[in-house]
Amino acid sequence: MKTTMNWNNCFSNERFGVNSKGGIRNDFERDWDRLIFSSAFRRLQNKTQVFPLPEEVFVHNRLTHSLEVASVGRSLGKLVGKEISKLPEVKTDDKARPFYRNHLKSVIASACLAHDMGNPAFGHSGEEAISKFFIENSKSKAFRKMFSDGEWSDLTNFEGNANALRLLTKDSQAGTKGGYRLTYSTLGSIIKYPCESKASLGKKGGVHRKKYGFFQLDLKVFSEITKKLNMIQEKTNDGIVFKRHPFVYLVEAADDICYNIIDFEDSHRLGILSHEFVSGIFLELIKLNKNEDFEHVQQMCEQLDSDKNEKIAYLRAKAINYLTIRCAEIFMKKKNAILQGIYTGDLISDISEAKKVITKIEEVSYKKIYNYSSVVKIELAGFRIMSGLIEDFVEAALIPSKKRIKRHNKILELLPPSHRFEETNTPYEKVMRVIDYISGMTDLYALKLYRNIRGIEMPSI
Q1: Does 437 fall in a domain?
Q2: What mean pLDDT is predicted for residues 135-162?
Q3: Which one of 24, 60, 437, 449 has the minimum C-beta count within 10 Å?
Q4: Per-residue model confidence (pLDDT) at position 56
């Protein structure tokens, strides 16, 4: 009989792929350090968040975004952990009580660091471009027959969230097991969509089935995480589906808070949104905080009025503080539904008094920020670049070795040793190796490689 998930058994300090040996740092702090020092995390500094990286005005990239999300996530984990530790069933448990009081904040912060690590260059355009190659080849019966239904669903709906889990857990070519060897708690906290691709239902499927969280190659990894954390499996005929782990809602809230507020701050710096509009929106949010001395806020605004960017930064901090506190309160209010897997909302949207302002932020972001000319141009360029790379590498990988011509062999020689495949691998395994390589590229590296192999720009020696 399966154990029911509760606050005392939904976490684990065990590490995926290895037995933990302990040390000066606790296991959850080690997760943070492993991510911070990883090359995949460093590469986020050259992956566009929203805006192309300008030379003169500093705006956020995926690395700075992830660090800020982690900061908010740590605060959320601390606030929620303190309250959960007071629950009757938790405060008498000598393992659970100290975990929530001292370590939940580290778990959420680490998961926030990792939440975007699976996103390919050029973000959603990159995801779409990877899928496009397979969708366009779906008319070829011979090509389609190479893949099972589950594998085909993965490839025609490439998902950065599933790629993050793969990146963090896949064995190295050198034989090292467990990838980054993170704790099961941190891994469970990043699985925003705990279902396989063929079971994802888009918006009609609820928050946990809007997209998918693991590739077919990583089913065993996913299954091990769900067992260790006692996650709840959903009864369905559609495929493998689980309810979200409770900690996912805190990671999601930290991300939602940051991109809603920070995108506005960046837009102000770039002159896309006026100072009056952005400061007005932030002040509307801050006014909702009953514990805020609004008169003092106004005085500070007057003091900072000569430096518009500093003024917006001050208001941004106040707005984030308010949303963080309220999201923690909503989590505790909805904690039973969240634990049982029947909560269908998201924390930031459930702040009833802020709903009108958050909706306005989302509407303006869509109309004026995400459809801004330079943003649209980089999306289109990114789509073309990633489509070209996928086409060249996947075509070469799937042609039988004896039928490859010189061009195909040269393309495959560009794969680093860590991403090369065996000729005995299945077509799906070969393709996933190629995607591992291409999805890990930075924007600039992808652009340069595309120009080189397409003859647009000669490589330097």
Answers
A1: yes
A2: 94
A3: 24
A4: 47
User: Rounded CA gap, 279 and 265, in Å?
Assistant: 9
Answer whether residue 397 is part of any domain. yes
The Cα 228–Cα 11 span in angstroms is: 8
- 429 contacts: CB under 8 Å, gap ≥ 6: 217, 421
Rounded to whole angstroms, the Cα distance separating 210 from 219 reads 18
Range of the structural domain that residue 401 is part of:
373-453
Distance CA 80, CA 73 (A): 10
Rounded CA gap, 184 and 282, in Å?
Answer: 37
> From residue 56, how far is each of 59, 269, 270, 272, 376 by CA, in Å?
10, 11, 10, 15, 20
pLDDT of residue 52: 55
Residue from 377, 373, 375, 381 nearest 451 by CA:
381
In a domain, 427, yes or no: yes
In the predicted structure, residue 20 carries a pLDDT above the cut 70:
no
Give the whole-angstrom CA distance, residue 271 versus residue 11. Answer: 45
Interval 208-245: pLDDT, tens: 999 999 999 999 999 999 999 999 999 988 899 999 99
Q: What pLDDT, in 10s, does the model give residues 368-390?
A: 888 888 788 888 988 999 999 99
Q: Is there a domain that residue 424 lies in?
A: yes
C-alpha to C-alpha distance for 443 and 36, rounded to whole angstroms: 20
Distances in whole angstroms, Cα of residue 161 to Cα of each of 127, 255, 273: 10, 13, 30
Report the number of distinct structural domains present in the chain. 1
Q: Which two tokens stand for residue 324?
A: 């963080």
Strand partners, 132: none
Could you give the 3-state DSSP secondary structure of residue 326? helix
Burial class (CB in 10 A: 0-12, 13-18, 19+), 308: middle
